[in-house]
Amino acid sequence: MTGIMQGKRGLIMGLANDKSIAWGIAQACAAQGAELAFSYQGDALKKRVGPLAEKVGSDLVLPCDVGDGASIDAMFDALGERWDTLDFIVHAIGFSDKSELRGRYLDTSLDNFLMTMNISVYSFTAVLQRAEKLMKNGGSALTLTYYGAEKVMPHYNVMGLAKAALESSVQYLAEDLGKDNIRVNAISAGTIKTLAASGIGDFRYILKWNENNSPLRRTVTIDEVGQSAMYLLSDLSTAVTGTIHHVDAGYHVVGMKNPDAPDM
Ligand code: NAD
């Protein structure tokens, strides 16, 4: 099938480089005909995001730091000048102080707790407050979460709480926006080596553990997350909202270590 996203305009937030989950999603949507805009955090990322946007035919690349409401407003104002409607939005953003993504959750500081919740949870709501006005014909919004929201994962700490709150916000947002035919979903992605993930303690061990113990006996790729995201962002999923869709090689169903897995 081709052209599934033909005629749709989408904003991709959270692209840092070609390893980003946002890049897998952007490529999958562009391959199906979507017209894309991108936001980037800070000038340092502009030089990476600009050329990637070009590769998928986009020259609409806007700065946005989601920790700053004025920056989100400015981004949506600039987007609204070019586009009168928006069909979908991808929020692939999360952040916590890396010194607290190791050791005990118990030692989390208040400052980092609040900052993590702001950037990784509230920002999705803040973005949708602005996007709602542009989604005049309905729309689809997607965020990215992780299994550490449901179960304790080593070193994930405050980010686990943030993802749990993000998943709950998906449900509340789905209810609030459903009347306007705006759907809100999340993908719970398996572990993937990205810039953000490499800040998590023992990340390589976690990656290997997932590879050895997931039902599919492997990890997942940004392309696979991209394909599933494209489904949730497209008209293939018009009755799907408020859901957390696992794209994790099945890891979320595992109760204990695979007996054939090598010792680690
Ligand atoms: P990434 O480092 O490529 O992307 C994270 C993005 O967040 C970056 O583009 C960064 O600029 C952006 N960001 C951080 N703070 C920001 C701010 N204040 N304003 C605007 N943007 C900001 O890493 P990724 O793994 O692709 O992460 C994307 C999402 O996927 C995150 O929510 C992450 O938690 C989630 N996720 C990742 C994995 C994994 O294993 N990589 C698994 C499940 C979920």
UniProtKB/TrEMBL annotation:
The keyword Oxidoreductase applies. Its EC number is 1.3.1.9. The keyword Lipid metabolism applies. Pathway: Lipid metabolism; fatty acid biosynthesis. It is an enzyme of class 1 (oxidoreductase). Keywords: Fatty acid biosynthesis, Fatty acid metabolism, Lipid biosynthesis, Lipid metabolism, NAD, Oxidoreductase. Pfam families: adh_short_C2. SUPFAM superfamilies: NAD(P)-binding Rossmann-fold domains. Gene3D superfamilies: Enoyl acyl carrier protein reductase (1.10.8.400), NAD(P)-binding Rossmann-like Domain (3.40.50.720). InterPro entries: Enoyl-ACP_Rdtase_NADH (IPR014358), NAD(P)-bd_dom_sf (IPR036291), SDR_fam (IPR002347). CDD domains: ENR_SDR. It catalyses: a 2,3-saturated acyl-[ACP] + NAD(+) = a (2E)-enoyl-[ACP] + NADH + H(+). Belongs to the short-chain dehydrogenases/reductases (SDR) family. FabI subfamily. This is Enoyl-[acyl-carrier-protein] reductase [NADH]. The lineage of its organism: Bacteria, Pseudomonadati, Pseudomonadota, Alphaproteobacteria, Rhodobacterales.
